[in-house]
Design goal:
This protein is mainly β and 149 residues long. It contains two helices and ten strands.
Length: 149
């Protein structure tokens, strides 16, 4: 219920203040793979936002999300969190329409498992880092870094 109320208040405030869609794309910095399920939070402040505003979202299967942010704010910070990765923080500038977030793995990779799919669907790669398992879904082709250069 709290999420519904927060989303409704954010939508109402965005409509009142005028809003634009900010496309956030998130990927693994080294593997350049899209990350699904990344928790996003934008904190905004400025004279037209007394007390500030927080907007939350989550990336979809393609590693992206579109968040509605008000047109007028002075300062903004985007935070991105995902198990097994360092929290990323980037500035959000007024008028920005897209942001690319490149996340770094926070620990040592214990092992990587490739799970083939059936019916010619994309594979899933599972990266095991300590107690966390991160699933990278919908992979059609992986090019090793040495071959890509």
């Amino acid at each position: 219920m709290k999420k519904i109320v927060s989303a409704a208040l954010a939508a109402w405030a965005a409509a009142l203040l005028g809003a634009a869609g900010l496309e956030v794309r998130v990927q693994d910095r080294e593997l350049e793979l899209h990350l699904e399920g990344v928790i996003l939070q934008i904190s905004l402040s400025g004279p037209t936002l007394p007390g500030g505003m927080t907007i939350k979202g989550e990336t979809g299967a393609d590693g992206s999300a579109v968040l509605e942010i008000p047109d007028e704010f002075a300062r903004g910070v985007l935070g991105a969190q995902f198990p097994g990765y360092e929290t990323a923080r980037l500035p959000v500038r007024p008028g920005a329409s897209e942001i690319l977030v490149e996340m770094n793995i926070s620990g040592v990779i214990d092992r990587v498992t490739v799970v083939p799919s059936e019916d010619n669907q994309p594979a899933t790669v599972k990266v095991h880092i300590g107690d966390h398992t991160v699933s990278l879904k919908n992979l059609r082709e992986i090019t090793p870094a040495a071959a890509a250069t």
